[in-house]
Design goal:
single chain, mainly alpha, about 65% helix
Length: about 140
Amino acid sequence: MADERTDGKPRIETLAQLLGTVLAYVVMGAIALVVIDLLFILVGGGNFGRISGWIAAVPSVFVFSDQFRRYIGGSRWAIALTGAALGIGAGIGATVLLPLTWPPLATGGIGGLAAALVYATLWYAGIKTYGEERP
């Protein structure tokens, strides 16, 4: 039971597990966002896809906050801030490269996904190098 947390959920130990979990959370956020956008269209009219897709990446924050609490020390702050800056930069870069004709739901969703995946990769590499796990 060394790989189980006190709440019964399995720990994320590998980069593949972290990336898969983040991807799953972003996809769930995107599905919820599409449903919300469709509900607003049914109630008030308008065009589909006008809502910002960046919101789809918000559920991945739960994964990252769980990871952040797992470690101690000042290095986790440096890794988190550096990862956030570079992740957001990668997300913005991804959205800039997409066609202007795409709706904000699609471009923002891709940008949010890129930001979350870059952050996850940088977090994993940094925390495995400099992090101290809580006892």
